Amino acid sequence: MANLIAIAYPDQATAEDVLATLSRLQTEKTIELEDAVIVSRNQDGKVKLHQSAKLGAAGAAGGALWGGLIGLLFLAPVVGMAIGAAAGGAAGAMADVGVDDKFLKELGAKLEPGSAALIVLVHRSTPDKVLPEISKFGGDVIQSSLSDDAEAQLQTTLASHQAAAV
Question: Is the distance from CB of 19 to CB of 36 less than 8 angstroms?
């Protein structure tokens, strides 16, 4: 089961830096993310979602593979790949996996203008390796499905960086 964690940052650049750190940690197998989205609120109050997954590209690649295989059966692999890629890309772009967009927009509406939040669905992690890496950026936990103890530990770790930076 995945845990939802939303951390607010003073600006979008900081949220992007944390996401880049989490992406690096994911390649190192220290954390496994199901979804990651940056929600920003501009100075005018408009909320924008910045999805990290490229679902349309993944769908197109999968569609091309299946289209090519089906095309081989009918002796037209190139045509099958083209049709499969188009269908897979369209399906992938329309698919909505991960955190619900309506929830993300509601969460974004609560942010201060000019700030951002990183929302992640964490499938698995090694907290003693992940927390020191993300604590450098500070932040404020605004929503989570973690246990009360785990959420308090995360907030304390993030706050200790902010106190040290001041």
Answer: yes
Phi, psi of 110 (to 5 degrees): -85, -10
Q: Does domain 3-53+113-165 have CATH number 2.60.120.10?
A: no
Are 109 and 40 in contact by the 8 Å Cβ rule? The answer is no
What is the Cα–Cα distance from 49 to 100, expressed in whole angstroms?
11
pLDDT tens for residues 53-86?
544 344 445 555 555 555 555 655 555 555 555 5
Query: Taking the domains of the chain in order of start, what are their residue ranges?
Result: 3-53+113-165, 55-94
Whole-prediction pTM: 0.71
Tokens 């197109």 locate to: 60
Q: Which ranges of 117-147 does DSSP label H, i.e. alpha helix?
A: 127-135
Q: Concatenate the DSSP letters of all residues of 111-162 into one string.
A: SPTT-EEEEEEEEEE-HHHHHHHHHTT--EEEEE-S-HHHHHHHHHHHHHHH
Q: Residue 108 CB: number of other CB atoms within 10 A? A: 23
8 A C-beta contact, residue 154 and residue 135 = no
